[in-house]
Design goal:
Domain Thioesterase: 62-137
Order of helices and strands: HEEHEEEE
CATH topology: Thiol Ester Dehydrase, Chain A
Helix content: 10-25%
Strand content: 35-45%
CATH architecture: Roll
Shape: globular
Oligomer: single chain
CATH class: Alpha Beta
Distance between the termini: 35 Å
InterPro entries: HotDog_dom_sf (IPR029069), PAAI_dom (IPR003736), Thioestr_dom (IPR006683)
Number of domains: 1
Strand order of the largest sheet: 1-2-4-5-6-3
Keywords: Hydrolase
CATH superfamily: Hotdog Thioesterase
Pfam families: 4HBT
Structural class: alpha+beta
Protein name: Thioesterase domain-containing protein
Largest sheet: 6 strands, antiparallel
Number of helices: 2
Length: 159
């Protein structure tokens, strides 16, 4: 398994513009209006989403519902992988999730990192850490290069 990230499809300065455009794409997604969250991409194959767990995302026992775990883990790993692809939008084809502890109200973050894949299929993982520094979940996703051009998506634009 390869552990060296492929070079982004753009130059070094172009890579930074690509990261900012992906952050704008994240902000433009209607689903993200439901969550207080912010994506940051600082290096190829790495992404972080800072978010706030709020009571409206709780299940009946008073902790975050699994949909919040999945969304943040999928997004963090997706953007880690898509940071390496500057021409096409990736699609999640599979995702495996492991819950390790309840996620309570307050700040948390999901950090994703690319694991393998350089052409058509990418694998990335992510973990969620709560405000006390404890890991609450981890997951691994498989992402496929689609026919959807990033440049054609209205939210994909540098900030």
């Amino acid at each position: 398994m390869s552990r060296t990230p492929p070079e982004p499809s753009a130059s070094v300065s172009g890579a930074d513009a690509h990261y900012r455009a992906l952050e704008s794409l994240y902000d433009s997604a209607p689903i993200n209006q439901l969550f207080r969250s912010a994506l940051s991409i600082r290096a190829p194959g790495e992404a972080r989403i800072d978010f706030t767990v709020e009571p409206q995302s709780f299940h009946a026992a008073g902790a975050a519902h699994g949909t919040l775990y999945f969304k943040m883990l999928d997004d963090a790993s997706f953007y880690a992988a898509n940071s390496l692809v500057s021409d096409r939008f990736l699609l999640t084809t599979a995702f495996n999730l492991h819950f390790t502890r309840p996620l309570r109200e307050g700040p948390a973050f999901a950090e994703g990192r690319w694991i393998s894949g350089k052409r058509r299929v990418f694998v990335a993982d992510a973990r969620i850490v709560d405000s006390s520094g404890e890991e609450c979940a981890r997951g691994t996703g498989t992402f496929l290069r689609s026919h959807i051009a990033l440049a054609g998506l209205p939210g994909y634009r540098p900030r």
